């Protein structure tokens, strides 16, 4: 009984993400569209070299 | 001479400090989620939270506690007796020694904002997803969604 999801290799962060998405999907229709925007997470990585943001090709160098 | 005076001053300050502390019967609640801040250090009477170590109520002077939130209803009773229910997806609850409480959720909404029929549809959708899941991971993911949907239906009915 204790946390089948943890036995399957999931973490609480993943659990939390799923739970939050289900809650957002169960909202009243007028709130759902706004809430659905939070389903996506965007992360942008910028490599820095010598204190400056480096161009992409610097990554392989 | 000056040592005695200093000692007296310190003792006085100490007494005042402990007096002030005993006055803090107030419980300050901060309840926030990624989508909204519901309470910001507001004084309330009681908070009931669902956690993995069981659901529990918090009053002022509660023993310091850390717990992980479970999908379910957080009930806040304000000092005037007004009761409000919120549904939280997940997150953490912290009870501090000074009777301040932080409830931090990934997503939280007033219970009136839940669409019951939508929640029921989600429940049956994820139930069938769970039974047809191919891998252990997919099955576990669907099981989480079922758990949340069940809690939603129960809370919104």
UniProtKB/TrEMBL annotation, chain A:
Classification via InterPro entries: ATP_synth_F1_esu_mt (IPR006721), ATP_synth_F1_esu_sf_mt (IPR036742)
GO cellular component: mitochondrial inner membrane; proton-transporting ATP synthase complex
MF annotations from Gene Ontology: proton-transporting ATP synthase activity, rotational mechanism
Pfam families recorded: ATP-synt_Eps (PF04627)
Gene3D superfamilies: ATP synthase, F1 complex, epsilon subunit superfamily, mitochondrial
GO process annotations (BP): proton motive force-driven mitochondrial ATP synthesis
The organism's place on the tree of life at top rank: Eukaryota
Family: Belongs to the eukaryotic ATPase epsilon family.
Name under which the protein is recorded: Protein stunted isoform X1
Automatic annotation (TrEMBL), chain B:
Cell location: Mitochondrion inner membrane
Domain of life: Eukaryota
InterPro entries, per the entry: ATP_F1_dsu/esu_C_sf (IPR036794), ATP_synth_F1_dsu/esu (IPR001469), ATP_synth_F1_dsu/esu_N (IPR020546), ATPD_C_metazoa (IPR048937), ATPsynth_dsu/esu_N (IPR036771)
Record-linked Pfam families: ATP-synt_DE_N, ATPD_C_metazoa
Swiss-Prot/TrEMBL keywords: Acetylation, ATP synthesis, CF(1), Hydrogen ion transport, Ion transport, Membrane, Mitochondrion, Mitochondrion inner membrane, Transit peptide, Transport
Domain spans labelled ATP synthase F1 complex delta/epsilon subunit N-terminal: 27-108
Subunit field text: Component of the ATP synthase complex composed at least of ATP5F1A/subunit alpha, ATP5F1B/subunit beta, ATP5MC1/subunit c (homooctomer), MT-ATP6/subunit a, MT-ATP8/subunit 8, ATP5ME/subunit e, ATP5MF/subunit f, ATP5MG/subunit g, ATP5MK/subunit k, ATP5MJ/subunit j, ATP5F1C/subunit gamma, ATP5F1D/subunit delta, ATP5F1E/subunit epsilon, ATP5PF/subunit F6, ATP5PB/subunit b, ATP5PD/subunit d, ATP5PO/subunit OSCP.
HAMAP family: ATP_synth_epsil_bac
Protein name: ATP synthase F(1) complex subunit delta, mitochondrial
Gene behind this protein: LOC111594998
